[in-house]
Amino acid sequence: MSSYPITQLPFSTMNESDVDQWLQQGITAVKAGNRAKGREWLMKALEADDHNEQAWLWLSGAVTSPEDRRVCLENVLTLNPENRLAQKGLAKLEETAVPSGAPARRQTIRRKRAAVSTAQALLYPERQEETWEWVDPTPGMTPGETAAYQAEETYDDVWTRDVDKCGYCAQELAEE
Fold this sequence. Notes:
The chain is mainly alpha-helical. It is 41% helix and 8% strand. The protein folds into 2 domains: 6-96, Serine Threonine Protein Phosphatase 5, Tetratricopeptide repeat (Alpha Horseshoe), CATH 1.25.40.10; 102-135, no CATH class.
């Protein structure tokens, strides 16, 4: 058996001792911190015996994504509903799960500004346009759930009033 690399072992030579050996090599690799190699050996053991509770349990520690970890732990519980480690692992996944609400809405905002002077318009044309990305701070909420808010622009332009005023300070002049 040692003459074959792991990916070239013929299925006809597989027996229970091979599966146990692959399982032990996978466990050893995971314990040593080599999760990729451990995952490879554990997957090989599961290809030969997909009802191996220990292989599924150890594979849950070797996979990289929470979704894969969930599948492994659910497989352990399918084989043995009383497995405490798998129950604890699933509970921990539930605690750290990100809510699956709507993703944050993103929008690119562009605003053009009038140049302060002709020189600024000619020398710095890139300053006449601002661009930034806006991310909705309430990604999972619908407009009906948010409080009603209407922005009002209140600007009182004293120069457009039909009253006499001082040309220097715009103070209304008293009638004489």
